[in-house]
């Protein structure tokens, strides 16, 4: 009976820890967005900044990505755009390749650990962008 109780408690704890992890990832994504993306895309993601006028290719309004895709958020395309290492270049090559930047910051984790860190950070950012859809 004790083992069964422990099993049931662990089944309850897993979704709770995942929801806490998801909310932390969203908070981390929001912070990263403010540090790295808001200068071009605006704090609200609508790309209404004075800096965006200086770019040769206007950054898109990130709050309408789902609306412009038949109501479905294009998660894979957003991840590839943020990462930039797949050959898909953002905004006509003007957008920085965040995957390379994150890779350089995570190199201390070794080749495979760094890649996991990079993918996690890109996903956190993409999840945040998904959360600001109108």
Short recap of the structure:
The protein is built from four helices and no strands. With 134 residues, it is mostly helical. The chain has one domain.
If you had to describe this structure to a student in words, what would you say it looks like?
By secondary structure, the protein is mainly α. It has one domain. The chain is 60% helix and 0% strand. The chain contains four helices and no strands. It has helices spanning 2-41, 75-83, 98-106, 110-131. The longest helix has 40 residues, at 2-41. The N and C termini lie far apart (49 Å).
* Overall number of structural domains: 1
How would you classify the helix and strand content by structural class?
mainly alpha
Q: What share of residues is helical?
A: 55-70%
Cα Rg? 18 Å
Taken as a percent bin, the fraction of beta residues is under 5%
Instruction: Report low-confidence residues grouped into runs of 5 or more.
Output: 1-20
Distance between the termini: 49 Å
Q: Average pLDDT across residues?
A: 78
User: In DSSP terms, counting alpha (H) and pi (I) runs of 4 or more, how many helices?
Assistant: 4
Order of helices and strands: HHHH
The total of beta strands comes to 0
Question: What is the overall silhouette?
Answer: globular
Oligomer: single chain
> Describe the biggest sheet?
none
């Amino acid at each position: 009976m004790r083992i069964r109780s422990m099993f049931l408690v662990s089944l309850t704890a897993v979704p709770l820890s995942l929801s806490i992890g998801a909310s932390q990832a969203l908070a981390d994504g929001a912070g990263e967005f403010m540090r790295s993306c808001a200068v071009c895309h605006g704090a609200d993601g609508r790309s209404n900044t004075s800096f965006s006028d200086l770019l040769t290719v206007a950054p898109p309004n990130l709050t309408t990505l789902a609306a412009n895709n038949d109501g479905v958020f294009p998660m894979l395309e957003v991840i590839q755009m943020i990462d930039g290492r797949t050959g898909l270049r953002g905004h006509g090559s003007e957008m920085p390749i965040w995957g390379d930047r994150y890779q350089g910051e995570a190199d201390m984790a070794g080749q495979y650990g760094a890649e996991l860190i990079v993918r996690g950070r890109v996903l956190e950012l993409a999840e945040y962008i998904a959360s600001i859809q109108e």
